[in-house]
Design goal:
The complex is a heterodimer of chains A (about 160) and B (about 800). Chain A is of the alpha+beta class and about 160 residues long. Chain A is built from 5 helices and 5 strands. By secondary structure, chain B is α+β, with helices and mostly antiparallel strands. Classes of the chains: A alpha+beta (about 160), B alpha+beta (about 800). The structure holds FE2/S2 (inorganic) cluster (2 copies). Chain A: Pfam families: Fer2, Fer2_2.
Chain lengths: ~160, ~800
């Protein structure tokens, strides 16, 4: 067991974990933060994407011990006082989700994308989301949602 | 229809179901945790076919944290065979299908033993300690080979790999063929696909030992069907089992099933008296969740030289995989009536042989039988057009049912109620700029451009609203196809709809609210929709085959009408008027000619709640239920056009534009309809260009993970241009037709037709799906060689 201290969505947790415990399982099974789902076991789907110290990571490829001393943001930490972030709102308005299973990961990956390219082209959005699979939407509405959110940053 | 129909129906309402999904407050089955929860892990066969000589779980049991471990033999006495509900033809061979293999494993991934432990890591680790001795057996790995003399038998006790033979015909095909100027025969292959819902399957069972009650949560599309069949399979009385489908992360048919894992988890939770969870990994999902398609299609079409179709003959070999799942034999038969599609012809012959192979079982995958049929007819129509030198769109025009000929009974015996193929096609051609693209194509040929342009068309129809119970009975299906809706008007005037359908991304909550809001005249936001729990929705037949709206949504509409009828009686009494003298508009009853004499439906609801003053003998409730069993299917249609650029030097295919005009009848929520189309088109393109479940010679699934099985990502797909025409269905009061599978059905042939069209100058007639760069390059090369 290894002791870790990690701040997740604003709350600091102190825990003893097995060294092999994956961050996604730590979040889901230990902290009960089940908003971030698991879609694969080969790091190909991106449903488990969270932010680790401000950068999007696939939390199934990070060990909980690697998050020691870090700050993690999950989809559950985005909305404040019921106010959705721009991407949460544009995903809703553009019907960029159907079953919603990929959505937390998509939103977290899109945040990263917009940090890197605040004004992406549609192609840049598609390439930026390459690591995240959505089986339901055909991506078009996801691309629209991300582009809409990028517009908002300008006007906001 | 009430006068308020346009109020909500037709509006692009944002979805009510998004809020919890977007904020991560989800209720996926794997999220469920209860005190004392144990975890189940499954050891699966590494071989395609082998005798099980010994299973020893004792070393696993010694591991700390392991609670129990069982082999198939340990559990076989308590569990019946997994059910197949659709033995389509007389004499269909239905082999035993134990939830855990007992004497033999029959496909890579077949369950062999299970471990129950205190957490998922311990359970997974303990699988390594189970010892299994196998004697490998020869395996039947491809559809045709499995029927050859002396082929290894998947089920030796059955003496054959032939599951069934099914035939149907109308008209005299031989005579039609004799009259034909041209007879084309083609063989198409439907590769195996892995449905790949993003949420892997999961099951949680919580037993209540004292009363013998069980709650089973499952990421299922079919909680109601599952409950019936769990009871039949396990012997636990149906009324002791509650099945809940919480948030479900996609299905596409793969969760329309009664899976061994559901049965095993239930039985072991009962045996151990402890709550139990099983969550599938993606690698397990790829071998253990059913696959789709997998057919060899031999097609023959007979026509006159002017393009007039005379007859069609279809003979299929359909892979069942190693066992029959719930609907396996029926899937190809769902396509049987769809091969003649939108075309008029005088003769049709269909035959299908179901074949067992040592591979993962095949069952419904988005479209289920209809994409296969549409692919074959739309491919051969293009081949015929090329053969007689006719534009493929003109060939279709020449043969299709004209809009003034509906209702029309096809040679396959289906009566299409309404449609307008001309309108959809004309609109699509205009949006696509067909003539300009054809000119560019010719130009590239003339200049021997290394990058060729190809144009593909697909004018599809499908049968939606899988229902008529009578039809299903004629097809030897065990269950019916009706659907139930309940509407409760609460004392405060808020409304609850309980639907028997069980959505997993389709947006029923929003659409059902729109439907009921219009009929009841109550605000959209005052309506809640509940589903997916057999306690809540006492009966239903769930969600598959684009049936939810056409059966379940129409049931909601009809239940709402019953509520209004009951409310009218109460309102008439309260207003001291005749029922016939009441108008009902925007949620209020008004006495004709006296606008001040009015009662809103909310007031009526409260009056029924207090029930101080009701008509004599009236039951104090305006709640209503409607169980709908439609008389017929619905038939959406559309025209999909795809332009591809094919690099003849690398084989790379790039979709340059994709345009479709679909006619799904009356549209409830255009935003949701468009979303369904996008997702469907993506899955159809995936079949055309990317996806295939590949096995090696040993019968191992080579595409066992998402690293090998290429589900397209955002950069792999184009922008879709979608538009629509609206020809209401005449077979239901809402005029709706269904949309969930349309995109998938239509897009695969449109894309492959485009690829082949680009390469026809090289003598290419067919490319097997998926049209990978390697296959395309090979086709160009062998085409060039042949013509050299
Ligand atoms: S679950 Fe992490 S990438 Fe798939
Ligand atoms: S919305 Fe279902 S996987 Fe993306």
């Amino acid at each position: 067991m290894t002791h870790i201290s990690v701040k997740v969505d604003g709350t600091t947790y102190e825990d003893d974990v097995e060294p092999r415990l994956l961050l996604i399982h730590y979040l889901r099974d230990r902290l009960g933060l089940t908003g971030t789902p698991i879609g694969c076991d080969t790091s190909n789907c991106g449903t488990c994407t969270v932010e680790l110290d401000g950068t999007a990571v696939k939390s199934c490829t990070v060990l909980a011990v690697q998050a020691d001393g870090s700050e993690v943001t999950t989809v559950q930490g985005l909305a404040h006082d019921g106010e959705w972030t721009a991407l949460q709102r544009t995903f809703h308005e553009r019907h960029a989700l159907q079953c919603g299973y990929c959505t937390p990961g998509m939103i977290m990956a899109a945040r990263d994308l917009l940090r890197e390219h605040p004004h992406p082209t549609p192609d840049e959005v598609r390439h930026g989301l390459e690591g995240n699979i959505c089986r339901c939407t055909g991506y078009q509405n996801i691309v629209r949602a991300v582009l809409d959110a990028s517009e908002e940053e300008v006007t906001a | 229809m009430s006068e308020t129909v346009e109020r909500e129906v037709g509006r692009a309402r944002y979805r009510k179901e998004d809020a919890h999904l977007i904020t991560g407050q989800t209720n996926w089955t794997d999220n469920i945790s209860v005190t004392g929860l144990l975890h189940l892990a499954i050891l699966r066969s590494p071989m395609a076919h082998a005798r099980i000589d010994r299973v020893d779980v004792s070393a696993a049991l010694e591991r700390p944290g392991v609670i129990a471990a069982f082999s198939g033999r340990d559990v076989a006495q308590e569990m019946g065979s997994l059910p197949c509900a659709w033995p389509v033809a007389e004499g269909t061979v239905v082999p035993d299908h134990p939830p855990i293999a007992v004497d033999e494993v029959r496909h890579a991934g077949d369950p062999v033993a299970v471990v129950v432990a205190r957490d998922r890591y311990t359970a997974a680790d303990a699988l390594e300690a189970i010892e299994v001795d196998y004697t490998p057996l020869p395996a039947a790995l491809d559809i045709e080979g499995a029927l050859a003399d002396g082929a290894p038998l998947v089920h030796s006790d059955k003496g054959t790999n032939r599951c069934y033979d099914y035939r149907t015909s109308d008209g005299d095909y031989a005579a039609a063929k004799a009259k034909a100027d041209i007879v084309l025969t083609r063989r198409y292959h439907q590769q195996r696909l892995i449905p790949t819902a993003m949420e892997p399957r999961a099951v949680v069972v919580t037993p209540l030992a004292a009363s013998g009650d069980f709650t089973l949560y499952s990421s299922t599309q079919v909680p109601h069907v599952l409950r019936v069949l769990l009871a039949v399979t396990t012997g636990i009385p149906e009324n002791k089992i509650r099945v809940v489908a919480p948030d479900v992360g996609g299905g596409f048919g793969s969760k329309l099933q009664v899976y061994g894992e559901e049965v095993i988890t239930l039985m072991l939770a009962k045996r151990l008296g402890r709550p139990l969870k099983w969550t599938e990994t993606r690698s397990e999902a790829n071998v253990a969740t059913h696959h789709g398609r997998s057919q060899v299609q031999d097609i023959e079409i007979a026509a006159r030289s002017d393009g007039t179709l005379l007859g069609l003959k279809v003979s299929l070999l359909a892979d069942m995989g190693a066992y029959l799942m719930l609907l396996s034999p029926g899937i190809p038969i769902l396509g049987a009536s769809m091969y003649p599609a939108i075309y008029k012809m005088g003769a049709y012959e269909f035959s299908c042989t179901g074949v067992f192979t040592n591979r993962t079982p095949i069952d419904a995958y988005r479209g289920a039988g209809r994409p296969e049929a549409t692919y074959a007819i739309e491919r051969i129509m293009d081949d015929l057009a090329a053969e007689i030198g006719m534009d493929p769109v003109d060939l279709r025009r020449h043969n299709w049912i004209r809009h003034d000929e509906f209702p029309y009974t096809t040679i396959a015996g289906l009566t299409y109620d309404s449609g307008n193929y001309e309108a959809a096609t004309d609109k699509a051609l205009a949006l696509f700029d067909y003539d300009k693209l054809r000119a560019e194509q010719a130009d590239r040929v003339e200049h021997a451009d290394t990058v060729r342009l190809g144009i593909g068309v697909s004018t599809y129809t499908e049968m939606c609203g899988l229902a008529p119970s009578r039809w299903l009975g004629e097809m030897n299906y065990a269950a019916g196809g009706w659907e139930a809706a309940n509407i409760r008007v609460l004392p405060t005037g808020k409304v609850e709809i309980i639907t028997g359908t069980s959505p997993h991304g389709q947006g029923h909550v929003t659409s059902w609210s729109q439907i009921a809001a219009d009929v009841l005249g109550v605000p959209f936001d005052d309506i809640e929709v509940m589903h997916g729990d057999t306690v809540l929705a006492s009966h239903g037949l769930d969600t598959y085959g684009s049936r939810s709206l056409v059966v379940g949504g129409v049931a909601v509409h009809e239940a709402a009408r019953k509520v209004v009828d009951k409310a009218r009686k109460v309102a008439a009494h309260l207003l001291e008027a005749n029922e016939a003298d009441l108008d009902f508009k925007d949620g209020a009853f008004t006495v004709k000619g006296s606008p001040e004499a009015t009662k809103t439906i909310q007031e009526v609801a409260f009056a029924t709640f207090s029930s101080h003053d009701l008509p004599d003998g009236m039951e104090p409730s305006i709640n209503a239920e409607h169980v709908l069993d439609p008389d017929t299917f619905s038939f959406p249609h559309g025209t999909h056009l795809c332009a591809v650029e094919v690099d003849t030097e690398t084989g790379a295919v790039h979709i340059r534009s994709y345009v479709c005009v679909d006619d799904v009848g009356k549209v409830i929520n255009p935003m949701i309809v468009e979303g369904q189309l996008h997702g469907g088109i993506a899955q159809g393109i995936a079949q055309a260009l990317y996806e295939e479940a590949v096995y090696d010679e040993e019968g191992n699934l080579v595409t066992g993970t998402l690293a090998d099985y290429l589900v397209p990502g955002a950069p792999d797909l184009p922008e879709f241009v979608t538009d629509r025409t609206e020809t209401p269905a005449t077979s239901n009061p809402l005029g709706v037709k269904g949309v969930g599978e349309a995109g998938t059905i239509a897009s695969t042939p449109a894309v492959v037709n485009a690829v082949v069209d680009a390469l026809r100058p090289f003598g290419v007639q067919d490319i097997r799906m998926p049209c990978t760069p390697e296959r395309v390059w090979q086709a160009v090369r062998s085409g060039k060689e042949a013509s050299a």
